[in-house]
């Protein structure tokens, strides 16, 4: 009857699945100080290099002087301040939608949107590789929950034909651990022809993707009739923290009234909204960041092909190197670290059993020489991986 935490922890260790937190002792950036050592890092989601941008930091400081540091209360009580409101309006303009609603984190935005829209008697259909927060949201909603094979629009269509009640198709925009894009044109077509709605969580698409950083919907030229519920997070390419849902006035009002993770939490610090307003401006205006990042992605992929590394089918800053076995993924990460390069291993249950990987991520803050250093280190380390445990 008592909690046997020790054996749970031991099991995890034996399976090479034990997690440790690298201790970061510097701001985000290509060069970081981790566990007392300077390393060249390729694993943050700061895709545009805005997390430590002087103008964003200054906006935060000015915001704190003007508005203080605490949100003070939930949005519905007395926590909804002018910077929050301005950021929502700016995000609505950015996404080309009537309104946007600010959440404290992407996890909460996903829980809030799905649970506000669906309940028992409804149906939620999710890509098998969706982010954990979307899967948790589907389960929490109490709706009939089904996962379709990755990006399989035909399988989605079969499930849509059997769906009951209000039906929501939910997908990552850019898949967070693989870097590939949702086949949104096909998914939206199947949903739309049957009156289902589509919700896209584009945590990794806003910023890098689309001509003006508008993410996967801009990339594919899709509108609100295709994707009714559009989620973005602010802790990745925006370089700050928080998240938003963009959509119709009716959708946003529904979330304000019914989304529990929106209602029952303190608003984010208003100074943070000031910082995000600044980073949104940089994201929209400094196209060189997107272009430089795209050039780095090409450089990395070309170089990886030359040294015989098999990369996944990704055109985004997420460029995972599939290893398979968890112990070997840890080993590769360790070998790179010995050469001064930090890429953390991603293991189950974050990814499927047998698909452990090094999730390399590129940022506009990197330069070409740094990408070359990564490639050289990979060329040296890859052959050293022992085959043990691979059978
Ligand atoms: C990071 C991430 C989230 C969570 O966002 P936070 O703001 O970090 O809570 C949600 N969805 C996806 C796809 C993500 O990658």
UniProtKB/TrEMBL annotation:
Required cofactor(s): pyridoxal 5'-phosphate
Lineage top rank: taxon: Bacteria
Known catalytic reactions: 6-carboxyhexanoyl-[ACP] + L-alanine + H(+) = (8S)-8-amino-7-oxononanoate + holo-[ACP] + CO2
Residue positions where N6-(pyridoxal phosphate)lysine is found in the record: 236
InterPro entries: Aminotrans_II_pyridoxalP_BS, Aminotransferase_I/II_large, AON_synthase_class-II, AONS_Archaea/Proteobacteria, AONS_Proteobacteria, PyrdxlP-dep_Trfase, PyrdxlP-dep_Trfase_major, PyrdxlP-dep_Trfase_small
EC nos: 2.3.1.47
Residue stretches making up the Aminotransferase class I/classII large domain: 38-378
Alphabetical list of Pfam families matching this protein: Aminotran_1_2
Keyword Transferase: yes
SUPFAM superfamilies noted in UniProt: PLP-dependent transferases
Ligand binding (substrate): 19, 131, 350
Keywords: Biotin biosynthesis, Pyridoxal phosphate, Transferase
Pathway stated in the Swiss-Prot or TrEMBL entry: Cofactor biosynthesis; biotin biosynthesis
Residues reported in the UniProt entry to bind pyridoxal 5'-phosphate: 106-107, 176, 204, 233
Subunit architecture: Homodimer.
Task of the protein: Catalyzes the decarboxylative condensation of pimeloyl-[acyl-carrier protein] and L-alanine to produce 8-amino-7-oxononanoate (AON), [acyl-carrier protein], and carbon dioxide.
Protein family (similarity comment): Belongs to the class-II pyridoxal-phosphate-dependent aminotransferase family. BioF subfamily.
NCBIfam families membership: bioF
Name of this chain's protein: 8-amino-7-oxononanoate synthase
Lineage start: Bacteria, Pseudomonadati, Pseudomonadota, Gammaproteobacteria, Pseudomonadales
Gene label: bioF
């Amino acid at each position: 009857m008592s909690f046997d935490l020790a054996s749970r922890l031991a099991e995890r260790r034996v399976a090479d699945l034990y997690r440790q937190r690298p201790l970061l002792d510097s701001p985000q950036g290509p060069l970081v100080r981790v566990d007392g050592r300077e390393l060249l890092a390729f694993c943050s989601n700061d895709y545009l290099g805005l997390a430590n941008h002087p103008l964003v930091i200054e906006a935060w400081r000015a915001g704190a002087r003007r508005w203080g540091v605490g949100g003070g209360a939930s949005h519905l009580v007395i926590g909804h301040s002018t910077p929050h409101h301005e950021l929502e309006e700016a995000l609505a303009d950015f996404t080309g939608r009537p309104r946007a609603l600010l959440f404290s984190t992407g996890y909460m935005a996903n829980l809030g949107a799905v649970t506000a829209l669906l309940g028992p008697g409804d149906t939620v259909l999710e890509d098998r590789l969706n982010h954990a927060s979307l899967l948790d949201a589907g389960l929490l909603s109490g709706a009939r929950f089904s996962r379709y094979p990755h990006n399989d629009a035909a399988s989605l269509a079969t499930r849509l034909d059997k769906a009951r009640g209000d039906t929501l198709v939910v997908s990552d925009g850019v898949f967070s651990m693989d870097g590939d894009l949702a086949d949104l044109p096909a998914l939206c077509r199947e949903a739309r022809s049957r009156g289902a709605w589509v919700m896209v969580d584009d945590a990794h698409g806003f910023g890098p993707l689309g001509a003006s950083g508008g993410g996967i919907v801009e990339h594919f030229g899709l509108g609100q009739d295709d994707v009714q519920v559009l989620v973005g997070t602010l802790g990745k390419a925006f370089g700050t923290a928080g998240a938003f849902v963009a959509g119709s006035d009716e959708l946003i009002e529904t979330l304000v009234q019914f989304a529990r993770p929106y209602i029952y939490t303190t608003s984010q610090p208003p100074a943070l909204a000031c910082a995000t307003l600044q980073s949104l401006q940089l994201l929209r205006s400094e196209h060189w960041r997107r272009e430089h990042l795209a050039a780095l992605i090409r450089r990395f992929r070309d170089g990886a092909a030359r040294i015989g590394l098999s990369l996944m089918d990704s055109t985004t800053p997420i460029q995972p190197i599939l290893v398979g076995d968890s112990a070997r993924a840890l080993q590769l990460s360790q070998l790179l670290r010995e050469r001064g390069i930090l890429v953390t291993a991603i293991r189950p249950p974050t990814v499927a059993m047998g698909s452990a990987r090094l999730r390399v991520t590129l940022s506009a803050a990197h330069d070409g020489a740094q990408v070359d250093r990564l490639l050289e280190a990979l060329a040296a380390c890859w052959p050293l991986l022992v085959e043990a445990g691979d059978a």
